[in-house]
Amino acid sequence: MKRQPLKYLPVIFLLFIGLEGFSQKIYDIELDVRENSFVINNTAVEMIEEEKYASAARILESVIENDPSFHPAYLNFYRAGSQVDEKKEKVVGVLRKGLEIFEEDDEMAYYLGNLLQREERFEEAIDAYTDAINYSKINGEDFPLVWAYHFNRGNCYLKTGEYHKAIHDYDYALQLSPDNYDILTNRGYSYYKVNQNEKACEDWQEALKLGSKVTQKYLDNYCK
């Protein structure tokens, strides 16, 4: 599955279903506008690396406004804007706009879910992660982040007390990322909350063997 920055054609920028793993609306983009988008995006990446998040977010907004089909700007705007308190709601809106343009883009839906989860908007985050999961079924689950779609939706279910749903997501995440002690730790806690203490302790023991730094306290408190 290709998930690379979108490329431009000489006069009209076109992308149809299947070319990059998701479908996109069609926009007419002048060559000089697209070239300017590349330059500004690269500058923003350098700013992000220097932790100049507000400046990077500001210049990326102009790219998204003038060249709405330039995919990398959305992802980098998330990287920058999510670090700036007053920009977080703007980032939510921009990612929602991006998902209207780049239909079935699981990575973008995942980043939207991450931001919503950090803002404790768990129901909205669950919806975003569910979109990411559904889109990944279309685009392919070989993308390295897909396990985290399930893991983070599971974390939202854990935080909202929906423990059985959390366990289901953690089960699937472990299929995609075996020997992941973070998943095992959280699944163990979910098992504990539904009174399956033996399974909880087994997960925590395995997580500890794999290098987890936090599960010892669970073993000490709940697995004596």
Automatic annotation (TrEMBL):
InterPro entries: TPR-like_helical_dom_sf (IPR011990), TPR_rpt (IPR019734), Ycf3 (IPR050498). It comes from Indibacter alkaliphilus (strain CCUG 57479 / KCTC 22604 / LW1). The keyword Repeat applies. TPR repeats lie at residues 106-139, 147-180. This is TPR repeat-containing protein. It holds the Pfam family TPR_1. Keywords: Repeat, TPR repeat.
